[in-house]
Amino acid sequence: MPLTVATKRRLVTAALVGPASIWLFFFLVLPFIAIIVFSFGERAPEGGYQAAFTFAQFANLGSRAAAFVNTLILAPIGAAACLFVAYPVAYYLAVKTSPQRRLLLVSLVVVPFWTSLLVRTYAWMYLLGARGIPHLLELFGIENIRLINTPGAVLLGIIYGYLPLMIMPIYVSLEKLDHRLLEASADLGAKPLSTFLGITLPLSLPGVMTGVALVTILLLGEYLIPQLLGGGKVFFIGNALVDLFLQSRNWPFGSAIAVTLVAVVVVVLLVAMRIAWRVAGTRQVDLV
Known about the structure:
Layout: H1 5-39, E1 42-43, E2 49-50, H2 56-59, H3 65-96, H4 99-110, H5 117-128, H6 133-139, H7 151-175, H8 179-187, H9 192-220, H10 224-229, H11 237-247, H12 251-280
Helix pairs in contact: 1-12, 3-7, 3-9, 3-11, 7-9, 8-9, 9-12, 11-12
Membrane topology: Multi-pass membrane protein
Transmembrane segments: 12-40, 67-91, 103-127, 147-172, 193-219, 253-277
GO cellular component, one term: plasma membrane
């Protein structure tokens, strides 16, 4: 009996989607289910997981309130700072440069990703340390300036590390912008600021929201930058997870924090999508 066209299409779809679905199930869904199970357990006497069913781990989340507060404050601030720096750069690349120069400049934006974030963060440790910028300031009579191991150092590292991830989505939105709309607005007598607020900014909002959501979600789990530039004094949720899983070996409590972090990420994503949809009207907004 020959297969129908619909059956063939379903088989082709299953063949294309099946391998990725199996991969995601075994390496994403199952580990997360294990984390959820661990979060309701207890710490074994020698460390690790001991089977139980208790909400004590979630009730104890307040003991890591500093990590949650630092993360939920510095992550949005870092994303906003990246946006403040990235939008003018993306606008210049997409609107103000010629196609020949654009390729070179976009490549320069991506070049830092060719080097490990660890190496680049160590470079900032030197620049912000006693022999870096503070030493140069002392030559001008400005003494006792502490830059390293501060929230400001962490924020600077966040902007540097995540700026390309904010620039590229905004650049893609602006690069697709129909320049005839800008020309028509100018021909009708609109001032540059009115054109930007009425045409450019609304049409680029999908890219803005994509960049903000992407950077914020990644920052919620950030570990390296707070550890190196914060010196252990600026604690993120990622630092708490490393401490609980690798040092304290309190897997149930670490799992409870991880589950809470995932819930926060989902809420952030849903809120970002809702805001983008409301602001952008009926235009399609893709954040993931």
